[in-house]
Fold these 3 entries.
Entry 1:
Amino acid sequence: MTFKTIAVLGAGGGIGAALVEQLTLRPDVQLIHASRHAEPTVLAAGNGTDERADAAPIRWSVLEASDEAAVRNWVESLPAIDWMINCIGMLHDQAHGPEKSIRQLDPDHFISSMTINCLPTLLLGKYALPVLRKSPAGVFATVSARVGSISDNHLGGWYSYRASKAALNMSLKCLAIEWARVTRNIRVAALHPGTTDTPLSRPFQGNVPHGKLFSPQKTARLLLEQIDALHDHPSGRFIAYDGEEIPW
Ligand SMILES: NC(=O)c1ccc[n+]([C@@H]2O[C@H](COP(=O)([O-])OP(=O)(O)OC[C@H]3O[C@@H](n4cnc5c(N)ncnc54)[C@H](OP(=O)(O)O)[C@@H]3O)[C@@H](O)[C@H]2O)c1
C-alpha cells in the first residue's frame, strides 16, 4: 500500500470537514494538512495537530487562500503531497444572494465570488507543482459546481457564482494541459459534489428533489470514490459525485 499525505483546503466547511473526517480514517492516509479560513470557535488554537490513536494525524493551519504570500508560504511549508483538494467556496454572504436577474448584479459580490471561488485554485496551482510532482499518483482537485458548466446552463441567473465557477473550471483545464507537459503523475479535476446540506446551500434547498440532498458525509464518500479513480483517466476532467463527466 502507498501511504498518502493529503492537503485539504476549506476544511472548516461542510464538505471539507467531512472529507477530512473520512480521510483520517483511511488506512492509506498517513497525514492530513488541513486549512481553514477562520479560527474555529470550538478549538483553542487554529494552528495545531489533532492526533487520535486510530486515525491519521491532522495538521491544522489558518490560511487566507486568496492571499498570494500566505498561499506561497503555506505550500512551501508542506512536504511532498499526494492529493491537494480545495473545498473553499462561497455562494452567498450576509449582504448578497445569487442573482435572479442581471439587474441584481453587485460588483463587490462579483469580485468576492471570483476571489473566493477561483483565485485560490490559481494561487495553489502557481506554487503546488514542486510538492505534487514528487507523488507517484498526484491529484489536484477543486470542488466546483455543475452550474459552472457553460453548456449545461439552461436556467441562467446566479451570475457571480456561475461565472466564478466557470472561471475556476477554465483555470483547472489550463493547469491540466500545462502540467501534462511536465509530468504524467498528476491528475487535475473539477468536482461537482451534488447538492449537499451545508451552510452554502441551506437557503436554496427548497426545490431539491427528494433523495437529492446529500449529507456532507455522503458527498465526501462519493467524492473520494471519484478521486480514487482519477488515475484511471486522463487529466483535466469535470466530474460529478457519481462519475458522470460534465461538459465544460
Ligand atoms: N453545498 C452544496 O450544495 C454545493 C453544491 C455545489 C458545489 N458546492 C461547492 O462545494 C464547496 C464546499 O462548499 P460547502 O457546501 O462545504 O460550503 P461551506 O460549508 O459554506 O464551506 C465553504 C468553505 O469555504 C471557506 N471559505 C469561505 N469564504 C472564504 C474565504 N474568503 N477565504 C477562504 N475560505 C473561505 C469556508 O471557510 P471557513 O468555514 O473557515 O470560513 C468553508 O471552509 C464550495 O466550493 C461550493 O461552491 C457546494
Entry 2:
Amino acid sequence: MADSIEKKFPSDGEARQLIIEIGRRMYDRNFVAANDGNITCRVSPDEIWATPTGVSKGFMKENELIKLRLDGTVLKQGPLKVSSEIKMHLRVYLENPNAGGVTHAHPPFCTSFAIAGLPINSAMCSEVVVTLGVVPCVHYETPGTQGIPDSIAPYCRDYNAVLLANHGALSWGKDLIEAWYRLESMEHFARIQVLTEKFIGKTNLLSREQVEALIKIRESIGISGGGFPAHCADKPQNLTDVLI
Ligand SMILES: [Zn+2]
C-alpha cells in the first residue's frame, strides 16, 4: 500500500486546546504583557483557529477562540473580535502551504533585536542553525495594517521566523508546536547572544564548513527554510580543548 502524502491536521478540539496551552506558556515565559500576542493553528488547507483580541493569552477559554478561512471569513465567532494582527498570520499560511501553526509575541530579547534593527544571523549555536536558522529583521510597518503582511511575504517560504522592526517576533512551523518551539528558540538564543557579546565579550563563531555540515542535517530532517548565517568564521575556532 502506498504511503499517504496527505497532510494530517489536528481536529478543531485539539487545535483549541493546543492554542490555550501555548498561550499559557507564552504568558508564563514573559513573552507577552497584558493582551499582547496571537496564536493560530491550521485545521484544514483553508481553515485556522485563532486567538481573540483583548484577552491575556495566559487566561483564554476555549469558547473565546475564533475559526476563520484563509481569506479572513469568520466561520465561528466567540464573544470577542479577532485580532487586527490576524492579517500577518493569514499571509504566512497563504505564502507557505506547509505552515501548520503561527505564533506572534513580544519576547524581551527578540524585541530588543527588532528595536535595534538586528537580524539573528550569527553562527553561534549548532542547534539554532539546524532548527531555526537565520531570522531576518523586517522593516517597520504600522501594526494591524496591510503593510505588515506585505513586509513579511518575501520571507515566509525560505525562513522559519522574522523579527518585526520596533514590534516583536513572528514564527511558523509545520505545526503549532514547531512554531512555538521556534519562538522559544529565538528568544533563548537572542539572550545567549547578548550574554556572549556584551557580558563575556568573546565569541568563537562556527566556521562556514561547520555550518555547511549543520545545514546538511537540517535538510535531512526535512527543514527547507532557514538560510545561511551571514556571520561565520573563515576557519574553525573551537577545535582545541581548553583547560586553563
Ligand atoms: Zn504584536
Entry 3:
Amino acid sequence: MDRKVELELIDELRALAASKTFFVDEAVTRNPVEHYLSEAGFAHERDTIMHRLPHAAAHISELAGAGAFLRCDVYGLPVLLTRDKHGVAHGFHNVCRHRGARLVEAAAGCANRFTCPYHGWTYANSGPLVGAPHFENGFGGIDKAALGLKPLPVKEAFGFIWVVGDPGGVFDFDDYFAPLAGELDALGMTAMTIAAEDRRTCDANWKILIEGGIESYHFRVAHRDTIGPYFEDNLSSYRAFGPHLRSVLPRTSMALLPEAARDGWRIRDHANLVYTLFPTTQFLVQQDHVVWIRQEPLAPGRTGLRLATLAPTGSEPAGGKSRDHWQRNHAITIKTLEEDMKIGEGVHAGLASGANDHVLFGRFEGALDRFNRTVAEYLDPAPTRKPE
Ligand code: FES
Ligand SMILES: [Fe+2]
C-alpha cells in the first residue's frame, strides 16, 4: 500500500476514534429479502456475475511446475487447470469433446496428456486433441483441430490462478483488477504458501457471508468471546475501487499509537484489512499473513467456503515459523468465522421466515450497501433501488 494512503487511513480512523464518531454514509438503506432468497435471482446471479467474473480457482502453489494439473469447480462448472511445458497456466472444461465424459478424475497431479476414461480420446495439457482410437474410420470429415478442450479465460495474478467460467470467452483481467493491482501485488501472496486450510458449507446466501466480513458493528456482540474485545467498537472504514472494496477494521491499539513514532506506523499491525474482490474472493490481511476466503455459492441458501491461511514461504514450514504457529492462528480465524457462519445461517433462516421485507443497513454499514449495489448493477444495469 502506498505509504501516504496508509497514513491517511490510520489518521482517519484515529480521528474518528478520538471523537467517538463513526465512518458513515449519507443514508440508511434497505435491501429486499428477496435478493437473498429467490431461486430465479440466484440463477440470474450465476449467469451474469459468477460465470462472467473472475474466480480465484487456486493458489499458484497448487499448480507449481510444468505438467501440474488440478481439478476444480468454478461455480458449478467442472474445470481442469493445467500448466504446460512452457509454464503457461490453462483452464478448460473438464469435459471430453466426444460424448462429454469427465476427462480427469484425479484431484491433482502431474501429466502432459489426459486420456478420456470412456473411449480413449487423448488431449495435450495445452488443450489440443492429440489422439483418438479409430478416428479416421469413425469420424471422417470431422476436423480434429476443432476438438481441443474448451478453454476458459485464465490469468495468473497476485499469487492466484483466476478463472472466468465463460467457455471461449475473453476477459480483460488487467482492467478488472487495475484499481487495486498495486496493493494486491504488495501483499506478496505470490511468495506465500497455504499453511493451513478448511472447507465448510454454510446454509446461508453468499451475500450474507460477504456482508459479515465488511462491517465491525457486530464485533463486540457476536465476537465478544473471540476477537471482539481487541477491536474498536463499531469503527471501520471502506473505499470502493470499481466493483471491489477495501475495508479497514481497526484494533483498539491503533488509537494508542504514539504520534512521535509515526514513521513506524504500519496499518496491518493495528487493523484487519479486508479486500473484497467482486464477486466472491476476500483477502483478510493480518499482521504477518493473509487469510484467503473464497465463497462458492451453491444455491440461494447454501454456500461453500474455502478458508486458507497463506503464510510467507520460508525455510521452516512457512515464514520461518513453525507449523504450530500457523495452525494456532488459523484455528483462531476459523473459530471467529464459525461464529459468523452460525449467525449467517440464522440470518438466512430469519429472512426465509417472511418476518421482514427488507434488511436494513445503518449509515456505518455503507460497505454492505455498496456491495449490494454492485450486485444490482451487474444484474440490472438500470438501478431500481433508491436510498431511504
Ligand atoms: S466421451 Fe471421451 S472418448 Fe468418448
Ligand atoms: Fe464477524
